Amino acid sequence: MAKKKLTAKQAAFVEEYLIDLNATAAAIRAGYASKSARKVGSNLLTLPHVQAAIQEAMADRRERVEVTQDQVVAELARIAFGNPRDVMEWGPGGVRLRPSSELTPDQAAMVAEVSETTSQNGGSLKLKIHDKVRALELIGKHLGMFVERSKMDVEGGLEVRVSYGDEKGND
């Protein structure tokens, strides 16, 4: 069976979808009407040839940037399980940052920002650590630890009856 070719707009949608994985925004950026973008984006994601193009483009990008899931999870783990006491000390005498040259790569990974402000009255240092809770949440989602309420595991059988109108079949 021949591979179905994407239209120009579908190809643009695939390219735009890779930016933020937002089908509505991708449809708008690809040139579809903003009024119908939500429905169009949703419909495009159901088309097998569009899905295949997205998967292929994502695989190409992974190869290009040479980033693996393992690397992403490892970096999140550095943030999630890092200990702030490894990069700074605090107590009655104030706060002292450890020199960056003394930090291991794992310790440095949890640091989001360091800034220094100086004024005539002195100065201050600011150390911002990446969000541990968010990193834990992302790891948990990756590992399937948090199941969305809309998902159900059903063992055995499930019978769903939907009826419209009265029991005689009249509307």
Question: Could you explain how this protein is built, in words?
Answer:
With about 170 residues, the protein is an alpha+beta fold. The chain has 2 domains: about 10-65, Terminase, small subunit, N-terminal DNA-binding domain, HTH motif (Arc Repressor Mutant, subunit A, Orthogonal Bundle), CATH 1.10.10; about 70-135, no CATH class. It is built from 7 helices and 4 strands. It has helices at about 10-20, 25-30, 35-45, 50-65, 70-80, 105-110, 130-140, and strands spanning about 90, 95, 110-120, 120-130. The strands form 2 sheets. Strands 1-2 form a two-stranded antiparallel ribbon. The chain has a two-stranded antiparallel ribbon with strand order 3-4. The longest helix is centred in the first third of the chain and has 18 residues, at about 50-65. It starts with 7 loop residues before the first helix and ends in a 29-residue tail after the last helix.
